[in-house]
Specification:
Layout lengths: L17 H8 L6 H10 L11 H6 L10 H16 L6 H6 L7 H18 L3
Length: 124
């Protein structure tokens, strides 16, 4: 009888859902409260069929969940800046429709969500 050599190289590991879970965890998720803010105050300008070409080209919220890590990092950094500076929604929009301005509560919720996403991206 010959020698039987068993090598771990021939012992394939089962495909686990970890790869799928890692992929899912690596995407930006919008909780319901943030989705609501985005739908009411952002989507009119930042959607694929928006009339405002500049806003449409700058950001389309429907594409956010598909961003890779580098794009997510850039997105989060830019969102921090425009929310902190009060640049979004733009002053012209708020002048025409004051209800578009983020309330203090919406602003806090948005910032908390951005902080959570930033920590996720940094692995914290």
């Amino acid at each position: 009888m010959g020698t039987v050599i068993i090598s771990s190289a021939f012992n394939p590991k089962p495909i686990e859902s970890n790869a799928v879970q890692l992929h899912q965890d690596s995407k930006i998720e919008l909780p319901d409260n943030i989705k609501e803010i985005v739908e009411v105050k952002c989507m009119n300008c930042h959607k694929p069929d928006a009339r405002n070409e500049k806003a449409r080209e700058k950001l389309q919220w429907v594409k956010v969940p598909e961003m890779n890590k580098e794009q997510q990092e850039d997105f989060i950094a830019e969102m921090f800046e425009v929310i902190e500076d009060g640049d979004m929604p733009p002053a012209r929009m708020v002048e025409r429709n004051p209800k578009m301005k983020l309330t203090d509560e919406e602003n806090k919720a948005f910032m908390a969500w951005l902080e959570k996403e930033e920590k996720r991206l940094k692995g914290k």
